[in-house]
Design brief:
The complex is a heterodimer of chains A (about 120) and B (about 110). Chain A has strands at about 5, 10, 20-25, 35-40, 45-50, 60, 70-75, 80-85, 90-100, 110-115. Chain A is mostly beta strands and about 120 residues long. In chain A, the strands form 2 sheets. A 6-stranded mixed β-sheet of chain A has the order 2-10-9-4-5-6, with no helix packed on it. The radius of gyration of chain A is 13 Å and the shape is globular. In chain B, about 35% of the residues are buried. The chains are: A mainly beta (about 120), B mainly beta (about 110).
Chain lengths: ~120, ~110
């Protein structure tokens, strides 16, 4: 069974940093492209970042470019999102999502709250 | 960036109704479109990819059509478990933008 489990969320002050992790199991992680998608409280879905299976190709939403860094460790079946210079508007549930195109496997999300 | 619009933003319907949601892209995205269902407090669930391909296990009352810039999502016989919010998403170009969502609630 495909499983992705996010962790690392929490409360952080504006300007602070946080690193999200996503542990993958039940599939060959190194074969899969991966994404982060977020959802602010009561709002719609926002795609955040993409990384290719090898980690060579990366893309970001304009809203996070220069502040967030996506990475992966295929040996550890793990995806990461390093978030720096956090703002109140980054408050959201962050989802780890498999694939590009048919993005069918989503974790349950981890909540990031940016507040003083 | 490709902008995605959806209409309506919300609708009220009854069990057994036929429900139609439209999604429009600001430029040609071929058929690179997903439809998701999201229930309150849960992660989104992929229902349709490539505009019209039903995911395995998704009931056949759900369907999608369209290509280019105009897409349609239909629930042919609304069931109680279908009350939820539905999103379209394009994956033709980065950023992979979502539509704003359509909330389907009980009439």
């Amino acid at each position: 069974e495909v499983q992705v489990i996010e962790s690392g969320g929490g409360l952080v002050k504006p300007g602070g940093s946080l690193r999200l992790s996503c542990a993958a199991s039940g599939f060959i992680f190194s074969d899969y492209r991966m994404n982060w998608v977020r959802q602010a409280p009561g709002k719609g879905l926002e795609w955040v970042s993409f990384i290719s299976s090898s980690g060579i190709y990366i893309s970001y939403a304009d809203s996070v470019k220069g502040r967030f860094t996506i990475s992966r460790d295929n040996a550890k079946n793990s995806l990461y999102l390093q978030m720096n210079s956090l703002r109140a508007e980054d408050t959201a549930v962050y989802y780890c999502v498999t694939g590009a195109g048919a993005t069918r496997d989503w974790g349950q999300g981890t909540l990031v709250t940016v507040s003083s | 960036d490709i902008q995605m619009t959806q209409s309506p933003s919300s609708l009220s319907a009854s069990v057994g109704d036929r429900v139609t949601i439209t999604c429009q892209a600001s430029q040609d995205i071929s058929n690179y479109l997903n439809w998701y269902q999201q229930k309150s407090g849960k992660a989104p669930k992929l229902l349709i990819h490539d505009a019209s391909n039903l995911e395995t296990g998704v009931p056949s009352r759900f369907s999608g059509s369209g290509s280019g810039t105009d897409f349609t999502f239909t629930i042919s016989n609304l069931q109680p478990e279908d009350f939820a919010t539905y999103y379209c998403q394009q994956y033709d170009n980065f950023p992979f933008t979502f539509g704003p969502g359509t909330k389907v609630d009980v009439k």
